[in-house]
Amino acid sequence: MRKNMAYYLGIDVGSISTNLVLMDEQCNVIHQIYLRTEGQPIKAVKKGLLEIRDQVGTDSMDILGVGTTGSGRELSGVVVGADIVKDEITAHAVATLETVGPDIRTIIEIGGQDSKIIILQDGIPVDFAMNTVCAAGTGSMLDNIAQRVGIAVEELGPRALECEEPADIAARCAVFGESDFIHALQIGVPMNDVIAGLCQALVRNYLNNVGKGKDIQAPIVFQGGVSENVGVRKAFERALKTEVIVPEYNTVMGAIGMCYLARRSIDNALTGVTTSMLKLQSATQTSTIARERITKFVGLDLVDIEYETKTFKCDGCANTCRIVRAFREKDIIATWGDRCGKWST
């Protein structure tokens, strides 16, 4: 990789996975990383940044803007020094519209422990829903069952396509779904038929819960870890009676969206900066130097810095908020969790 090139970094920290994407100024994905969060979001982010530093051959000065999203967006944003922190709905919508097309109407996203639907109209999210309560419509249901019967989760999709008659599997609950799956095998239903029934059950659960009451229109994009399962994709196409598009970077769309949003954030900030730098020799030089001064990115050397979080309950009022403090080398760098702003300000 050439040195002295400009990049944007997107980070998506979820409950199951942590994804990082490095994108150049021409919006090409240079490197993508998928890691297991394993309950340690800071460790996962540092591991991803270490890979970028060691394998991609870039350095801190090459990264002009950083954005974070996901359930761990606030914490990871503080640790890396994010220029913009956004919710998953915005990140996935931006990534889809930019990489797949502006005419997309519906985004189906299913991850390891949650799922969401985003309804778009004229390139704007107008409705959405999320499911974070039950695992029946998420990837963890597939993972658990695959482990129980000794099949790699990657094999479920291809085997579902080889079925003759999908088995009836409960869709309302992950526990009941797993019980039905095992019972079907015990009475002699072929494995491929049971797997196909499982894929259809996951789709029914999603449409009856997350997609309930939503105006699901084509073109439809399917992303998230579960979109790797071709059996689930075919089940969606069967249920919705239309093609379902799986984009090229289907598992890291949240991080891609944050690359675009980080670039927009830096570009907006540049508006008030470049006018004071007109004496530089060229517009390109002006842009590069200004960007380097704007970003809040801590730098790739943060992989060598110790971070930790501590919590306590505030008894200042009846809310009893749980306050979270982030520390860098024993110094407090951020506080959040209070409703009144007493601690975070």
Characterize the largest beta sheet: strand count, sense, and whether it forms a barrel: 5 strands, mixed
Structural class: alpha/beta
- Which percent bin holds the helix content? 25-40%
> What order do the helices and strands follow?
EEEHEHEHEEEHHHHEHEHHEEE
Name of the CATH architecture of the largest domain: 2-Layer Sandwich
The DSSP helix count reads 10
Task: Give the domain tally.
Answer: 3
Assembly state of the chains shown: single chain
CATH C-level category of the largest domain: Alpha Beta
What is the mean predicted local confidence, pLDDT?
87
Describe the structure.
This protein is of the alpha/beta class. It folds into three domains: 7-90 and 253-304, ATPase, nucleotide binding domain (Nucleotidyltransferase, domain 5), CATH 3.30.420; 106-245, ATPase, nucleotide binding domain (Nucleotidyltransferase, domain 5), CATH 3.30.420; 306-345, no CATH class. It is built from ten helices and 13 strands. The protein has helices at 41-56, 73-80, 88-99, 139-149, 156-160, 174-186, 191-209, 230-240, 253-270, 283-294; strands spanning 7-13, 17-24, 29-36, 63-69, 84-85, 106-110, 115-121, 124-131, 220-223, 244-245, 307-313, 322-328, 331-336. It has a five-stranded mixed β-sheet, with helices on both faces. Strands 8-7-6-9-10 form a five-stranded mixed β-sheet. Strands 11-12-13 form a three-stranded antiparallel β-sheet, covered by helices on one side. A hairpin with an 8-residue loop joins strand 11 (307-313) and strand 12 (322-328). Helix 7 (191-209) packs across helix 8. It is globular and about 65 Å long. Residues 275-283 have low confidence and may be disordered.
